[in-house]
Amino acid sequence: MTARGTGKRILTIVVILAGLCALAMGAETPQPSAETDALPHPNAGPSQPGKIVIAHRGASGYLPEHTLAAYAMAYALGADYIEQDLVLTKDRHFICLHDIELEDTTNVEELFPDRKRDNGKYYAADFTLAEIRQLRAESRTPRRFEPRLDGFRVATFVEAMELIQALNASTGRNVGIYPELKQPAWHREQGLPMEAPFLELVMRYGYDRPDARIYVQCFEAASLQLLRTELGSQLPQILLIGGKDPAQALLQAEGLTQVAAYAQGIGPARGLLEQRPEIVALAHAAGLQVHPYTFARESVASRYPSFNAELRHFFFEYDIDGMFTDFPDAAYEALHAETP
Ligand code: G3P
Ligand code: CA
Hints:
Shape: globular
Order of helices and strands: HEHEEHHHEHHEHEHEHHEHEH
Bound molecules: SN-glycerol-3-phosphate, calcium ion
Radius of gyration: 19 Å
Strand content: 5-15%
Oligomer: single chain
Number of helices: 13
Mean pLDDT: 88
Structural class: alpha/beta
Distance between the termini: 14 Å
Low-confidence stretches: 1-8, 10-15, 21-48
Largest sheet: 5 strands, mixed
C-alpha cells in the first residue's frame, strides 16, 4: 500500500472508530427508517476485481457479532463485503442474527423469561421488533469481548444496509453486503416465508443488478433456486456447503455445473478445501467463485505456523476468490502485504 493509501485508510479508521465509540458507550441507537419512506439508494457498480475479504458477522473477532458497531469496525478494517445473517421477527422485520433463537447472543432470558417454547428456546420469530429492540446484544462464546457491556443492540437489516451505504457515501469506497437467509424452510413452516420480502427489500435499497455489491448466500439450494427462477432475481448468489452437509456430493464437476445454473459461487467450510483443494479448480471450471468460511485466530489448522500463513495459503496456493473471517484486518493484511 502507498503512503497516501495508508494515510487515507488510517483517517477512515479514526473517523469510523469515533462513531463506533459512541455506539459502544450506549449512545441512542438510531431508529430504523420507516421502510416505506426509505429512498432507493443505488449502490450497484462494477465488481471489484480480484480476491475479497468478507467480514463474518462484522468484525466479530473484536465486538459482539452482527451489531452496527461490529459492521462499522469491519468497514474500517478494510472488508470488501460485510456479512449479515438474517432471520425474521414475528412482525416480519429482517434482523441480523446468526441463530433463529435469541438466547446465545442476547439477554432475552432476563427480560422475557416466560417467552420460551416448550423446548426451552426463545425464537426470534415469536418476538416483535419492538421487543427485540429492548434486548442487549452480547458476545457469544468464545467471549472475545466483555459480554455484558451495555450499548449494543440487535440490528435490523435495514439499519445495516443504511450504515454501509452511508459509509460508502462518506468514504468514497464501495463496500458490499453479504446477507445469508437463515433456515428459510423453517421460517416458511412458521408462516414467515423469506425470499420474496427479502428480494423486495434489497431491490428497494438499490441492489437490483447482476453487478450490485451484494452476494446472497444460503445453505438451502431450494431457496436460491426460488429466488433465481420463480422470483427472477439477478443478484449474485452463493451456495453454502457445510463440513457435514450432504450437499458435499455437489463438489464434483457435474454437481458444480448444476450449481452454476442458479449461483455465482460456493461457500464451502474451509475444512472441505483442506481435504480436497482441487475443489477450487473444479468450481472455477464451472464458472463459480469460491468463498470458504470461517477463518479465525483461535482455530488455525495445526499445519500452519501462523494465522497469516493459513490465510495466505488459502488465498494464493488454493487460489480462493474470497474468505469469510472474524478478523478482516488479518485477511486484509494477508491479501495486500507486498511480501509474505
Ligand atoms: O455464511 C458463511 C458462514 O457464515 C456460514 O456459517 O454458521 O457462521 O453462518 P455460519
Ligand atoms: Ca453466515
